[in-house]
Amino acid sequence: MVRLRPGSYLLFVLLILGIWQFGSGAWILLKAELAQHLIARAWQQTLVRQAPVKPWSWADTWPVARLQWRDEIDLYVLDGASAAALPFGPGLQRHGSLLLAAGHRDTHFAFLRRVKHGDRLTLTDMHGRETIFRVQLRQVVDSRQASLHAAGAAPALVLVTCYPFDALRAGGPLRFVVTATPQSNHHDPVTI
């Protein structure tokens, strides 16, 4: 009979815990990757049907637009900005003439730190119509004091994420806000 030393038990427990943690992390990454493929498929079906298609049967959101920046970013934008939807992509809400998209600073909207004044953002709706927006304003606001006023405002796309980008904790009061307006040759922005 083989006798294990007391330190061997600790090593065995630590090994099992390490495998568990690695497996949990790999599972989360695998689910995230699979979700993006399902969302992309739902977007293609949405374009064909010209009506929302859920990426999986129990999803509480669906792709309503596609957002592109330069040749670097190509995101599917989901309906609403619920806590359940945001891990899968930015969420879109309409506030009067404003299209407000919210996303996580460390995943889908991490690129906002590199967006500059005058940059082009392309938003495609579920009917395949594209609207080109130009970035007009980049600002950091305190969410406890700032609010959106859409009444009578010109159409705009507003992208919002937590700030600062490299904060150790998410959920502080500061938000990084990018405001873009339709290019002058586009009279009817996308309809979401």
From TrEMBL:
| Cited InterPro entries | Sortase (IPR005754), Sortase_D_1 (IPR041999), Sortase_dom-sf (IPR023365), Sortase_proteobact_type (IPR022445)
Q: Which Pfam families match?
A: Sortase (PF04203)
UniProt keyword Mitochondrion present: no
The enzyme's first-digit EC class, named in words, is hydrolase
Entry keyword annotation includes Hydrolase: yes
CDD domains the record matches: Sortase_D_1
| EC number per UniProt | 3.4.22.70
Q: Which SUPFAM superfamilies match?
A: Sortase
Keywords on this record? Answer: Hydrolase
Query: Its Gene Ontology molecular function terms?
Result: hydrolase activity
Identify this protein by name.
Sortase A
Organism of origin: Methylohalomonas lacus
